[in-house]
Amino acid sequence: MNQMLQDAEVQTSQAQATETENAPDTPALPPAVEHPRFAKPQRVAFVQSAWHRDVVEECRIAFLREIEERHITNVDVFEVPGSFEIPLHAQILAKTRRYTAIVAAGLVVDGGIYRHEFVADTVIKALMDVQLRTEVPVFSAVLTPQQFHETEVHYDFFRKHFAIKGVEVAEACANTLLSLERLRGQVAAGIVG
């Protein structure tokens, strides 16, 4: 009887090996990542520039998908005319204390090298000021390409680039909120401070 069981096990192993050898070459999917959960619900404001909306929206779409995987489902989206208007909206939203984080997305182009660099630099500095004044973290996906031409090739490139930035800003947002949640808990417990 033992010999029959052993023979059956050998046949099963051989059949599995044959199936594996004959299986089509499909790439193995990476294992699903289980992201840490928050102790308290998080609410995020996403402030997006309407200028070059078709490009910038790729950031929002990728951000929303990634942030949901990281257990943040309360996201309010706001749209402003251009990137220059983002900091004031971010400050007003931060002062409401309704949001645990604010994410900004915009594409600053046109008007010569000095103008768009000035606008982008001003926006980034203003967002940092909002963050430091209100203690609400502010994340930037406001981008300034060195060269942007109104061609389909550039539009396609920056749509893909903004999708990548959306995932990156979601990761930074979630990780920072987790870190701040931990830090604030330690401060409240008297461990830090």
Automatic annotation (TrEMBL):
<dbReference type="GO" id="GO:0009349">
    <property type="term" value="C:riboflavin synthase complex"/>
</dbReference>
<dbReference type="InterPro" id="IPR034964">
    <property type="entry name" value="LS"/>
</dbReference>
<dbReference type="InterPro" id="IPR002180">
    <property type="entry name" value="LS/RS"/>
</dbReference>
<feature type="compositionally biased region" description="Polar residues">
    <location>
        <begin position="1"/>
        <end position="23"/>
    </location>
</feature>
<dbReference type="GO" id="GO:0005829">
    <property type="term" value="C:cytosol"/>
</dbReference>
<comment type="pathway">
    <text>Cofactor biosynthesis; riboflavin biosynthesis; riboflavin from 2-hydroxy-3-oxobutyl phosphate and 5-amino-6-(D-ribitylamino)uracil: step 1/2.</text>
</comment>
<feature type="region of interest" description="Disordered">
    <location>
        <begin position="1"/>
        <end position="34"/>
    </location>
</feature>
<comment type="similarity">
    <text>Belongs to the DMRL synthase family.</text>
</comment>
<keyword id="KW-0686">Riboflavin biosynthesis</keyword>
<dbReference type="Pfam" id="PF00885">
    <property type="entry name" value="DMRL_synthase"/>
</dbReference>
<keyword id="KW-0808">Transferase</keyword>
<protein>
    <recommendedName>
        <fullName>6,7-dimethyl-8-ribityllumazine synthase</fullName>
        <ecNumber>2.5.1.78</ecNumber>
    </recommendedName>
</protein>
<dbReference type="GO" id="GO:0009231">
    <property type="term" value="P:riboflavin biosynthetic process"/>
</dbReference>
<dbReference type="InterPro" id="IPR036467">
    <property type="entry name" value="LS/RS_sf"/>
</dbReference>
<dbReference type="GO" id="GO:0000906">
    <property type="term" value="F:6,7-dimethyl-8-ribityllumazine synthase activity"/>
</dbReference>
<comment type="function">
    <text>Catalyzes the formation of 6,7-dimethyl-8-ribityllumazine by condensation of 5-amino-6-(D-ribitylamino)uracil with 3,4-dihydroxy-2-butanone 4-phosphate. This is the penultimate step in the biosynthesis of riboflavin.</text>
</comment>
<feature type="binding site">
    <location>
        <position position="51"/>
    </location>
    <ligand>
        <name>5-amino-6-(D-ribitylamino)uracil</name>
    </ligand>
</feature>
<feature type="binding site">
    <location>
        <position position="140"/>
    </location>
    <ligand>
        <name>5-amino-6-(D-ribitylamino)uracil</name>
    </ligand>
</feature>
<feature type="binding site">
    <location>
        <position position="154"/>
    </location>
    <ligand>
        <name>(2S)-2-hydroxy-3-oxobutyl phosphate</name>
    </ligand>
</feature>
<feature type="active site" description="Proton donor">
    <location>
        <position position="115"/>
    </location>
</feature>
<feature type="binding site">
    <location>
        <begin position="107"/>
        <end position="109"/>
    </location>
    <ligand>
        <name>5-amino-6-(D-ribitylamino)uracil</name>
    </ligand>
</feature>
<feature type="binding site">
    <location>
        <begin position="83"/>
        <end position="85"/>
    </location>
    <ligand>
        <name>5-amino-6-(D-ribitylamino)uracil</name>
    </ligand>
</feature>
